[in-house]
From TrEMBL:
Highest taxon listed in the record's lineage: Bacteria
PROSITE patterns: SH3B
Polar residues biased stretches: 321-332
Pfam families hit by this protein: LytR_cpsA_psr, SH3_3
Protein known as: SH3b domain-containing protein
Length: 410
């Protein structure tokens, strides 16, 4: 009887060792493959990431890549920054608006997602570090197929789709989702995080992306997912690039097990109080950031007490007023006066200059977006308040638009 028990324990121990060995092999194979995958790199820049010792704040950049254009350098459709404080065990997730107008080394002023197209993850990482005055330690980049594979590998996700989503794209990545609680496959989850057709456009889209990260993070952290980890890694390997080494992964896993993903802070960058919607010299709609305010916002959210002095919107570190001039040279700070009473006055007309302009409840980019008007559409200007027009659309809707994004026609 004793020999049978010893034999059983030996077999069980061997099985455990084999499973553990398979997991370790899967991890090393995955890391070796994604570290040597240079699909997204242009080869023109060096990877300039910071070294993480394991005790200080760790910052990881997650990049969703649109690599559909054959012969073209792919663009970063999604830019997410995960920051984990090893002292407080708190995590913060930021989505960086892709239309944020920043300085890109060797390029000049451009939308931040252009950095990936010009110089791959290397140039984008350098640009984000300069923009936020924050070290980036690691990055993980995957394309649309990789994202869908992750969702399918974990068995899909349950999401409450707030409204019907319809958008014709290229026949492969068209978007069609009905409203309501539903279980999404990988392709459907990709539709959910890419859709920009709601009233708040990219603001809503980045909010859904942060929501999806939390859902996926909580599901992967569940015990039932442990057995699926090798399969998940195998599925996403061909579509993923990263600089996470084996020794780093163990430290990150150890830290991740101590973090409560459900309590993760999620924010957009720049926050609404530190951005201005304008047109650049090429007529593109951009988000012009208050860089000092955005940096301060990030450092406070992640618990960096070294720079914890409050900065009011439109001021510098010494609380002095600074101009919010964008690339068109127009001040666009926006007042917060109540809207005037609605009127049937026709007034002068203004035409939308860029691709679209947001219609807001009150003047100022911090106020709610209640609709959008598109290129070439004529608006009846009822009143001007600073750098904002109170307008009536052709459909009879009233709201405020930035004067910098429309042109007076009479």
């Amino acid at each position: 009887m004793k020999k049978k028990w010893l034999r059983f324990i030996s077999v069980l121990l061997m099985a455990v060792l084999l499973v553990a060995g398979y997991y370790v092999y899967s991890m090393f194979s995955f890391l070796d493959a994604v570290n040597s995958n240079n699909t997204f790199s242009t080869g023109d820049n060096l990877l300039n990431t910071a070294t993480w010792e394991g005790k200080e704040q760790v910052n990881i950049l997650f990049l969703g890549v649109d690599s559909r254009g054959e012969g073209e350098q792919p663009r970063s459709d999604t830019i997410l920054l995960l920051s984990v404080n090893p002292v407080t065990k708190k995590a913060s997730l930021f989505s960086i608006m892709r239309d944020t107008y920043v300085n890109i080394e060797g390029v000049g002023q451009a939308k931040i997602n252009a950095a990936f197209a010009y110089g791959g993850p290397e140039l984008l990482i350098s640009t984000v570090q300069d923009f936020l005055d924050l070290p980036i330690h690691y990055y993980v980049a995957t394309d649309f197929q990789g994202f869908a594979k992750i969702i399918d590998a974990i068995g899909g996700v349950d999401v409450n789709v707030q409204e019907k989503m319809v958008h014709a794209d290229d026949g492969v990545y068209d978007i069609l989702l009905n409203a309501g609680e539903q279980h999404l496959t990988g392709q459907q989850a990709l539709m959910y995080v890419r859709y920009r057709g709601t009233a708040r456009a990219d603001f809503d889209r980045t909010e859904r992306q942060r929501e999806m990260v939390k859902i996926v993070g909580q599901k992967i952290a569940s015990p039932s997912m442990a057995l699926k980890l090798p399969k998940i890694l195998k599925e996403v390997t061909p579509y993923t690039s990263s600089n996470v080494a084996a020794g780093d992964l163990y430290k990150l896993i150890a830290l991740g097990l101590k973090v409560d993903a459900s309590g993760m802070v999620t924010e957009q960058l720049p926050p609404v109080e530190f951005l201005t919607e304008q047109l650049n010299v090429s007529g593109e709609q951009i988000l012009w950031p208050d860089i000092e305010g955005t940096r301060q916002f990030v450092h406070e959210k992640i618990g960096d007490t070294q720079t914890a002095t409050t900065i009011e919107p439109g001021t510098d570190k010494n609380h002095q007023e600074v101009p919010q001039n964008g690339p068109t040279g127009n001040s666009n700070q926006g007042t917060q006066q109540p809207p005037p009473a609605q009127t049937t006055s026709t007034g002068p007309s203004a035409k939308v200059s860029g691709e679209y302009v947001n219609l807001r409840q009150k003047p100022g980019t911090e106020h709610e977006i209640i609709g959008q008007v598109y290129a070439g559409e004529l608006l009846s200007v009822e009143e001007q308040q600073g750098d904002w027009y109170y307008v009536r659309t052709k459909d009879g809707m009233y709201g405020y638009v930035s004067a910098a994004l429309v042109q007076m026609v009479n």
